[in-house]
Amino acid sequence: MLSSVKLRLVRPSTLSATPFAVSLLALAAALPAAADPLYFSSSAQVQGNIRTTYSSPLLGDVSFTLQGPSDWKSSWNNQGQGSGVASVNYKIDAGQTSSDPIYNIVTNNGQYGFGYVGQAEADGLLLRTKTTSTTVNTAGEAVTSPNSQLWSYASANWNQQFLINETPNRQKGSYGAILVGFTLDGSTSASVGNNWNDGYAYGEGQLGSSFVDSFGVNFSSSFGINTSSSDPTWTGSRTTYKKLLFQYGTAFNINLNQWSQAYVNAESDFSHTGFISSIELPFESTLQSGAEQAGLGGISQLYGNVTHSATADDINTNWDFGNGGGGFNPPVPEPSSYALMLAGLAAMGFLIRRRRS
Q: Which region, left, alpha or beta, applies to residue 230 given φ > 0 means left and ψ of -120 to 50 means alpha?
């Protein structure tokens, strides 16, 4: 049964002096302040330049850089689903001369032409970067210039806060870790050669985390994946894993950056995306993220395979300061991998029984 409550009305002039008013003020002071929203931002950029080295009897050895056009897009919190597409298409035709001496030096009196095309975008949490650079002669053939090297660059990134509050097993202020899987998909190619001057393409993705704990100590960590047109081990996709430290109840920052770079005659195509493909969270914990609060999707939509450790003491989600983070177990194999493992064990058992008989 609900008990009835009687309130005694008082004049406004006497409210501040009543015990009732004092109680209300004390109650308001005891209530926790509204939590600040976790931020999310993203950006994308494309740019390029031509680096020229020139020698003359009067000036001696001279080097300079001709900046090409660039484009930059950005978004903050819920201002759209991503950064928008940054795009550049730039070309200097071969076979032309000019009254501008700098132009004639760069093109070697019109013998060479240069161009680059690039696109970059942070599509939600998916990073897309692609750029192609070309150096040609008057016949339109891919060549190298003795004086000038073209470089183009496309980048995309996002930056956001995460928060994991205390759990029944971990109090506020204690430390934990999340195990993050990062995947980079893409390709690189060079049509002239595989060195910096003849033609070279490069792609990289890097994920980092940082926070200042409740004691004022600054923590940071990062890891990444990179490949190039001279990398024979690249198969088009690679995933790597790392434990990232956090403090329960303290917001921590994670940023993801991706770059595509192309030199002379080359292409770096990572428009297939770099992204977080999995997160293992501590036992019974709940993850909040700036991207989710910005309306970009739910946790499983944003971060792929999201799981929880089976126990509160799992090494994947607990941090050992004395052991470089404490190491971690690799992700659980997919069902198809289990099937192959079981088939292999069965075959080994059959051979052992046959030898004994």
A: alpha
In the chain, where are the structural domains located? 40-348
Predicted model pTM: 0.79
The lowest-confidence range among 1-10, 75-84, 212-221, 223-232 is 1-10
Q: Mind spelling out the 3-state secondary structure of 89-106?
A: EEEECCCCCCCCHHHHHH
Evaluate if residue 106 carries a pLDDT over 80: yes
> Three-state DSSP class for 303?
helix
Alpha helices in the chain (DSSP H): 12-15, 19-30, 101-106, 290-293, 299-303, 335-356
Here the tokens at position 225 are: 């994946």
How far apart are alpha carbons 113 and 93 in whole angstroms?
A: 5
Instruction: Give CA angle at 152 (182, 197), nearest 5°.
Output: 105
Q: Quick one: which of 287, 268, 278 has its CA closest to 155?
A: 268
pLDDT 10s digits, 190-213: 986 655 567 899 999 999 999 999
Neighbours of 160 (CB within 10 A): 24
Give CA–CA dist 152/260, Å, rounded: 8
Strand spans (E) along the chain: 40-56, 60-67, 71-76, 86-92, 113-123, 126-136, 148-164, 175-185, 187-190, 200-212, 218-228, 237-247, 252-263, 266-281, 287-289, 305-308
Backbone angles phi, psi at 92, to 5 degrees: -115, 115
Cα of 111 vs its chain's centroid, Å: 40
Q: Which residues contact 149 (CB under 8 A, 6 or more apart)?
A: 50, 51, 135, 196, 197, 263, 264
> Do residues 120 and 218 touch, judged by C-beta distance below 8 A?
no
